[in-house]
Amino acid sequence: MSGAADVRLQDSQFGVYVHVPFCASRCDYCAFATWTDRQHLVERYLTAVRTEIRRAVDDGMARATSVFVGGGTPTLVPGDDLATVISAIPVVDGAEVTVECNPDDVTESLLCSYRDAGVNRVSIGVQSMVPHVLLALGRRHDPDNVVAAVDAVRAVGLATFNLDVIYGTVGERLSDWEATLASIVALDPPHVSAYGLTVEPGTPLADDPDRFPDDDDQADKYERTDDVLAGVGMRNYEVSNWCRPGHECRHNQLYWRQGDYRGFGCAAHSHRNGRRWWNVRTPDRYVDLVESGCETEAAGETLDERTRHREALELALRTSDGVPLDALEGSALPGLVTRAGDRWVLTRAGRLLANEVSLRLG
Amino acid sequence: MAPAHAIGGLGALPTVTGSIGERPMDLARIRNFSIIAHIDHGKSTLSDRILEMTGAVDMRQMRDQYLDSMDLERERGITIKAQNVRVEWKGDVFHLIDTPGHVDFGYEVSRSLAACEGVVLVVDAAQGIEAQTLANCYLAMEHDLEIVAALNKIDLPAADPDRYAAEIEKVLGIPADSILRISAKTGTGVDALLDAVAERIPPPTGDEDAPLQALIFDSQFDQYRGVVSSVRVMHGRLTAGSKVTFMQAAASHEAIEIGIRRPVPTPVAELGPGEVGYLIAGIKEVAQARSGETITTSLRGADTPLAGYRDPKPMVFSGLFPIDGDEFENLRDSLEKLSLNDASVTYVPESSGALGFGFRCGFLGLLHMEIVKERLEREFGLGLIATAPSVEYQVTQTDGSVVHVANPAELPQVQSIERIAEPYYKILIITPTDYTGTLMELCQARRGEMGKIEYLSSERVELQYELPLAEVVVDFFDQLKSRSQGYASLDYEPSGYRASDLVRVDVLLNGQTADAFSTIVHRSGAAAYGRRMTEKLRELIPRQLFDVPIQAAIGGKVIARETVRAKRKDVLAKCYGGDITRKRKLLERQKEGKKRMKSIGRVEVPGDVFISVLKLGD
Questions:
Q1: Chain segment B1-20, per-residue pLDDT in tens
Q2: CB A352 to CB B570 under 8 A?
Q3: Among A167, A254, B4, B492, which one is least packed by beta carbons within 10 Å?
Q4: Full-prediction pTM beyond 0.90?
C-alpha cells in the first residue's frame, strides 16, 4: 500500500445522509442549518425529501451501505413519517442505519417505528450529565432521560448506539466533566463521541467571548476522556470518537475515507468522486425547489487531484488509520505522531494538535 | 516611439496665447504662490478651478487633456502633474507651486515655499483652521510670504465663515475682513481670490543680468526622461542647451530641455528671473538633483549657492528584511528603483542572526518609513518585516574613536564604551490650551526638557521642548494626536547630540538573542522597558508546539522573563460530511497565516510583531 488511495473506500461503499432541520429550541453554540419556527413545514419537507430520494433512485443511485439521519432534531418529527423517508432509501443487506435522537423524545414506540424501517443504530445527544452545565449549554433535558433512553434502546434491541457529549462549556469544572464521563460509562455505551465546545462564527456564543472555551481546559478534559474511556476498553479511532471493537460508525468512516455519499434535505452535502456539492440552506427554499421540480444544489466544488490527495491525507490523519510514512516527516514531530507499521498515527497529544500536524503534511 | 523631447510639440494641445510666450518676462507681472490647506479642505478642487478659470483650457478640454496626459503617462511613463503649473490671469502670469504635506517632509515644504512670494491659505468654512495647516503657515511667515486667506466650501449648510474668519484672525493675525469667501466647487469667489493674488502677493525680484541662480524645489524620476526637476530662477537666465552646474552636488550637466507646465510640459528657450518651470538634464537619480540644490551656469556662474540647502539626512533607521529569505535580491533591486525617485532613503546591507539578510534603511521620519515600506510591498510585491526603528547614536569608545551606530545590534561591547550620545530634537507643539497639561506630561515622560511656553491667544498655546529623537520616533505623534483629540500640531528640527546614560536591552527568544528586538534605551527606564517588552511579546507571539521563554537582558543579565506556554490544542472537533470542505479551507488559511510568520530560531513570529511591539503604550 502506498499513497492515500489505500485509505479510500471501495467503490461499493456508498452513504446516504438525510437532514432534518427542525429543533424545539436553538442551542446557542449551534451553527447547523436548523430552525425552531418551521414546524408548519414538516410534512411538506419530509415529502420533498422523499421526492428527492425517489428522483435519485430513478437516476440510478446505488444502494447505500450506510444511512445517517441527522439534524436538527430528527426525533422531533413523527416517527412513522421519518420511517417512510428511511424506507425510501435502498440499502444493501447489513447496512448501518443511524438516527440522531434527543433523549427527551426517545420512547420505545418511537424506536420501534425506526427499527421497523431498518434503523439499527441511534446516536443520543447527551451533551452533559450535569444539570448546571446543560443549562449553560441551553439544553433543557433531564439527565435521567438519558438513562431512560438507553434502556429503551436496549429494550427495543437496536444493534448499537452512540452517546454524544460536549466538554468545555463555561462554568464546567473538571470535576463536572468527570461526573459526566462517569455517568455515561455507567451506561456501558458501545460508542462515545466527545466534542470540545467550538465557537462557530455567527452563533450567539461567538458574540460572547466571556463564554469562550479555554484551550488548556479542553486539553485537560480531552486527556481525561481518553483515560476514562480507554479504562473501560474503548479505543479512540478518530479525534473525537471512541468505541468498543467492532462498533465504529461506518458512515463516518466513509466520510473520513473520502467515500461517495449523497445528502438529502436542505443544506445536506454530497460527494462523488472528487466533486462536493451542497443543497440550498433553508427548508423553505428546498421545499419550493423540489415541489417545482428544480435542482436543489446551491453550490459545489470539484477538487483537483492534488487537493483531493491532500484532503485524503488530512482526513486520514485524524483517524487511527494514520497516513503513509512518506506523507509526513514524523520524526520531526516527536510526541505528536508515532509509527505504526508503515504509517504515522497521531498520539493523544498529536490528536489535540491535529491541525498543526496537518499543516506539515506532504 | 517619438523622441522624448517632442512632448512639447503635441499638436493637438491647445496653444496658449498672450504674455506666456513673450520674452523676456516682465517681473512685475509674475506671481508665484503655493496653496496651503489641510487634507480635504479643497486644495485640489481649487487647483482645478484655477486651471479652468484662468482659461488655460476650457472645462471639457481640461478633462480631455487630463485624460490624454494619463495616456501619455501610461504609454511613455511621463509624469505630468497638475503641480507647478503656469497659468494666466488678466494679463498676469501665475505659477502655482505644489507642496508636500507632512512634517517628515518639512524641509521639502520649506524649499517649495522658497520658490514663492506668497501663499493662498485655504480653510474649510465648516471646520475652521486645522492644526497641521498652522505649521506651514508659520513656515510661510518665516519666509516673509504674503498670505492670502480664503474660507472654502461656503456653499455648505454647515459653513460658518464669520466664526472661522475670527479664529484665523486670532491665531494668525490675518484681519478677518481681508479673508475671502469662496466655493472652489461652484467657483464662487474664485475670481476674487485670483484678483487678490494679483493685488496682494508681491512680484518676484531678481536681476536678469546677474549670474544664474536657480533653485530646485522638487525632482521626480521619469523612467524615459530621467530626472525632471522643478526650478525657480532667482537671478540670471536658464537657457536650453547650456551647460549648467549643480552647485551642492558639484556636478555639471547639459540643460537638455527646459520648459513650463501649462499644465502640459512645453519646452521654452529660456527661463528668466522669477520664472518657474522644469529642467531635464539627463540625470539618472533624484539624489543628484535634490530639493534645495542651486543651479548656475558652468561658464561665469554664481560664486555662492542660494541659502538654505541641506542634505536630507535620514533620522530614523530600521532593518527591512524579506519574510521569504529568497527575496533578498528582489529587495535590493526594489530599493534601487525606489531610490531613483526618493533621494532621502538610504540603505546598506545588513545581516541579522534572527532575520537573515536584509537592509538597514534610513528614513526622514516614521511616516516616511511607513510610506517606503508600503511602496516596497505594494509596488514591488515584497513581504517585509521592519525591525524596531532606531536613531543614530554616536558612541565614543575607550580608545577615543567615535562610531556611529544606527543598529542597536552593532553597539560595541559595554566595556569598550566611554560614552554614548544621542540626537535631540527641538520640537514645537501648537495646541488648544485645554491640552497643555496632558501634552506637558507626555513630553516629560519622554525625557523632554521644556524650552518655553507661549500663549498665541487665550485659546492656543505654543510649547517648545528639547526631546531625544529616540523618544519622538516611538508613537510620539500618535500620542500627541490622541491626547489632544487631533488638535495639536507638531513641528520638529534636529538640535544636535547630547551624551546620555544609555543601555542596550536585548531580547532572548527560546534562549537565543533575537538581535532584531534589541533596543537602546535610557538606563532609568530600562527595567520597565524590559518588562513591558517581554509582556507584550508574550501576548503577540502565538503559542508554539513547545514552551517559549522570552527574556529581556542588559549585558547578559536577565531583567525580565515571561513564557509563552506550549500550545496544547489546535484541532477541529467535528469533521463530518458537511464539514470537510470547510475544514480544508480552514487549514489552507492556517497555512497562509504561517507564511506571514518569520521563524526566529525555532519560534514562529508574526511579521508585524516588531511594529506592534513599538506600540507599548505609556
A1: 333 333 333 333 333 333 44
A2: yes
A3: B4
A4: no
